[in-house]
Amino acid sequence: MQPTLLAVLIASSLAVHAAETVNYKGLGKASITAETLEKFRAKPLDATLSRKVQATLDLRAPGSGVLAPDGKSLYFGWRVTGVAQVWRIDGPQTFPVQMTGGEDATSINDITPDGKWLVLSRDRKGEENPGIYLQAAKGGPLTVIQHIPDVQTFFEFISDDSRYVYYRSNDEVNDSYTFYRYELASGRKEKLFGEKGSWSVLDHRADGTLLVQKSNSNSAAEIWQWHPATGKLEPLLGQGEKEEFEARYGAQPGELIVHTNKFSDFRRLYRWVGGKFEAITPEKKWDVAGFSLDEQKQRLYYSVNEGGYTRSYALDAATLKPIALPTFTGADHVNIAGGTRDGSKTIVSVGTATAPRSSYVLDWKSGKLTQWVLPSTPEIDTARFAVASLESYPSRDGVAIPMFVRRPAQCAADGAGAPCPVVVHFHGGPEAQSDAGFSAYGQLFVDAGFIYVEPNVRGSDGYGKQWLHLDDGPKRLQVVGDIEDAAVHIRKQWGRNGTAPRIGVMGGSYGGYATMAAMTMFAGSYDAGVSTVGISNMLTFLENTAPYRRTNRIAEYGDPVKDRAALIQLSPTTHIDKLKDPLLIIQGASDPRVPVGEAVQMYEAANKKGIAAELIIFGDEGHGAQKRENQVAAIGHTLRFMERYLKAAK
After folding, report:
1. Which residue in 29, 206, 408, 456 has its CB near the most CB atoms, within 10 A?
2. How far apart (Å, rounded) are the C-alpha atoms in residues 595 and 30?
3. What's the pLDDT band for 413 if we cut at 50, 70, 90?
4. Above pLDDT 90, what percent of the chain?
5. 3-state secondary structure of 202
6. Can you name the residues that pair with 587 across neighbouring β-strands?
7. How far apart are CA 637 and CA 587, in angstroms?
8. Is 639 helix (H, G, I), strand (E, B) or coil?
9. 3-class state of residue 532 by DSSP
10. The pLDDT of residue 416
């Protein structure tokens, strides 16, 4: 009988030694040598494969965007140049005008209420240390508000009179945020307050009062109110608790609209007045995934995550009575994505399985719905794309684990010949969720003859807080077997003519960790793995990740002191002696979340064992590839690796 994972905790002092002798320090490009960067530069792809990936990347949709106050222009993000930049259209389906350019990823935050200025964010080389800028609404050069090396500067909001831009930054303390406001006319910066912790603004009032959130982890937060007259913070919700809270000012005096899972396994919306909660949305076995109110507090919008499909609703913000929204036949996801400041127009984003996302503008006065932005599908008929089916597999303790499956037409379970190879893709987070809808990335593998599988293992979002917290800290040891159980199910159930399919595993961030765990802790369950920006050792990761993330990640993975034994056992490097199948590791040198040392140490350990291991490091990327050429290389080499090791004879 196979020993339990808890039994492994005391099984091997050698394993503990192996995990603790890894000693890289630091993060970012400066933490590795130029020789290492050059040695692990991505190799050129076969021309045919490169063209295939390039064509797939041309299947894209612009971002939902920000409407100008007069509703006559829409500003949105688009990667058509190969790097995320800001574009403008001056009416439905008109020719787009490029607003920003260059090599740095740029996005739009908002436009001033007077319609004169855009507020933009710009990052360099994936460092996640963005700055914020101003640009005239009609275009032109950028004016920096703040962009400091190794410092994060995040936009918060623009005052209703267009006088100030509010923002936060960790320029004073690297693991906490100070709040500022910038006066557009004078360029003067004023500090408002700075408190220890990860703070952000949720809403504001005309008198300068701020509704702020203090995030204690990805799933626990507090709500406070900051008063400009006194400079003091007033506690409102969540203090001394470990629950999720998000809030906005409601339409009525003294009212908050609160999004929380405090009173249920699932997130709901509540009206909060005088310390009392009143439910707004009905009790369902699905999360209210998000919500918003328009600037004038006329309408309250919310979306519900129905097992990986998104449905959106509207309420009158004053009476909380339902308001009808347009219906979209065949849509997997419908989201409200902003609108004009006067509330007269609303952006509706619609996603289906067979086309990139489309954006519409709903005019509330006329009731007319107009498609503003068209997706791009050059040379490819997306109507033939595989539609994800929602299925499940059993864990070793009998729990059904949901998964989305996309199958090539020739890979029906009762087909003749050899079984189709399978690629299992684990999402990041780990508090994230794979969902239905359009997936050009998944279709690339389907077109190559792979069955493409996306599990939502325990610890994923979207299935209630009990499910979400099943992998917190040392509890991960009880559920990490979900990674292996996917392969066990596939081998047993998806074979043909007595032959089990070959299976690959891949993922990014936490999905990269899941891949390394699959190839080491559960060696032999998968035949090949591709880990992108993944954690190889929980201890070295927590020691070296950026300071602003460390407390948050300790809350998720465990404390390096009191949970040390569990973290060691959960580290793929601990189980490196079990590794026996090919592994490709892809990493950005500037990654502030998962340091590049995580990739290097895993590759070196695998290489010493004589495993067919490969390492690719992008010198100009961070936590994932942003630039077109790097995306092509990352995707192309992943597909090449899976083709080589899952389709070749063993």
Report:
1. 456
2. 11
3. low
4. 90
5. strand
6. 617
7. 13
8. helix
9. strand
10. 66
Q: How many whole angstroms separate alpha carbon 552 and alpha carbon 547?
A: 10
Residues found in the chain: 650
CATH number of 31-55+386-647: 3.40.50.1820
Which position has the token pair 């948050």? 552
Distances, alpha carbon 227 to alpha carbons 162, 239, 273, 631, in Å:
20, 18, 18, 45
Q: Tell me which residue of 441, 423, 399 sits closest to 494, measured CA to CA.
A: 423
Q: Give the 3-state secondary structure of residue 309.
A: coil
Pair of tokens at residue 145 = 């508000």
Q: Which two tokens stand for residue 53?
A: 């990936």
Average pLDDT estimate for 213-236: 94
SS3 438: coil
Query: What residues contact residue 648 under an 8 Å CB cut-off, 6+ apart?
Result: none
Q: For the chain, how long is the longest CA-to-CA vector?
A: 76
Q: In whole angstroms, what is the distance from residue 95 CA to residue 285 CA?
A: 44
Q: Please list the residues that pair with 352 across neighbouring strands.
A: 355
Q: What is the mean pLDDT of the chain?
A: 94
Residue with structure tokens 């954006």? Answer: 359
Q: Are 428 and 510 contacting, i.e. CB atoms less than 8 angstroms apart?
A: yes
26-44: burial string, b at 16+ Cβ within 10 Å, e else: ebbbebbeeebbeebebee
Residues 638/586, Cβ–Cβ less than 8 Å: yes
Distance between CA atoms of residues 59 and 105, nearest Å: 19
Tokens of 493: 């159930």
Is a pLDDT exceeding 70 seen at residue 414?
no
- Strand extents, DSSP E, 160-298: 164-169, 177-183, 189-195, 198-204, 210-217, 220-227, 232-237, 245-249, 255-260, 268-273, 276-279, 287-293
Tell me if 210 sits within 8 A of 223, measured CB to CB. no
Sheet holding 422-426, edge to edge: 389-394, 400-406, 451-455, 422-426, 503-508, 528-532, 583-588, 613-618
Residue 136's contacts (CB-CB under 8 Å, 6 or more residues apart) are 116, 117, 118
Are the beta carbons of 525 and 484 closer than 8 angstroms?
A: yes
Higher pLDDT, 197 or 399: 399
Which are the contacts of 329, defined by CB distance < 8 A and separation ≥ 6?
A: none
pLDDT of residue 3: 47
Q: Is the pLDDT of residue 16 over 90?
A: no
Please, which pLDDT band fits residue 14 given cuts at 50, 70 and 90?
Answer: very low
CB 513 within 8 A of CB 557: no
Which tokens sit at 636? 């192309």
Beta pairing partners, 524 = none
Cβ-contact 486, 452 below 8 angstroms: no
Q: What is the pLDDT of residue 417?
A: 73
* Phi and psi angles of residue 463, each rounded to the nearest 5 degrees, phi first: -125, 25
